Amino acid sequence: MDYVTRVYQDPRDIPAQMWDGLCAQQDAPTPFISHAYLAALHESGSASPKTGWKPQFVTLWRDNQLVAACALYLKSHSYGEYVFDWAWANAYGEHGLAYYPKGLVAVPFTPVPGSRLLASNNDSRTHLLTSVLDLCKEKGFSSLHLLFTSPQDRLACDALGFMQRQTVQFHWRNAQFTDFDHFLTSLSQEKRKKIKQERRRVQEAGVTFQTRSGSEISTQDWDFFYDCYERTYLEHGNAPYLSRSFFQSMQDHMADNWVLFVAQREGQPIACSLIAVHALGSDNAVAYGRYWGALERVDCLHFEACYYKPLNWCINNNVSCFEGGAQGEHKMARALMPVTTYSAHWLAHPAFADAVERYLERERSGIDQYLEHLAERSPFKHGA
After folding, report:
1. Of 23, 160, 266, 349, which is least surrounded by CB within 10 A?
2. Using an 8 Å Cβ cutoff, are 22 and 68 in contact?
3. Domains of the chain (ranges plus CATH)?
4. According to the model, what pLDDT value does residue 325 have?
């Protein structure tokens, strides 16, 4: 089958309707692979050549129709990825080799599992990945990485001999709970008591919440959110990954994908959390814990804003899953359970590829043991 391959250095040059049409056909679509989201990352300068994310979006065309595409970035660092390969980069450096530039198929700053190789069928998906790999070889990249992949992505990667890597995230599943109290009854007495104590501390501190979604989130709300978001990053000694103009694009073009929880005390906003939603109103609706920030310190406020309020909202809106983001065993105490996430890797240097393969075999064994250990710490009642 004949394809025409085109590479774009600006996602805005790709027809949005065609890109999003492919997204809708995938096994694991998310808002974060949509044209508007990727274009906002680029246009706002959040993920652009200046910040070390040079777009090389690869597309396949047949009869002037887009049949496959992926967001490929030329990376000069490993920040903002959440699947850590710093040790690999250091090993390259110790042997006098350059690890950067590398190729990355991922959504910048967004550790959400989902489709990465957008394609109309399996043949075009495999051909797309082959084209991406050929491009990386042609440009002399040290490696190619696909992060937080879907099952269909993994099949294509297996067919081309990519190394598969596993990591762990924590997700909450809605067992058809009727309300938050019903959810609490599924937990062990110890965990149920702890959550009630944490929520009571926030309430006794005089904190109340307002929930806004979609167009209800005003520009003033977005401004306040960004103040909180930026301060949280700066308090940890880092500049925020995402610019204010990125979130302006979210308000302008993807408002329906966001829900904001604003904490107030004495009539003044003091903190907030922002979650994303997908397919709301369907049986497969998903929410994603994304960002949080506070201007004041209140004991347990983070748990209330980032877990309990969103979970309550998910129950009330029949959302089937809440994904808590990268890392964090503490999430298990809030009933977010471990799930395996996947990435795929190709390294050009044969000796390093062999070394990484052996490392990943040991790591997989460790992940399996880790998951077994976590399963023994389930917060749910025995047999639940």
Report:
1. 266
2. yes
3. 4-169+339-375 (3.40.630.30), 175-319 (3.40.630.30)
4. 86
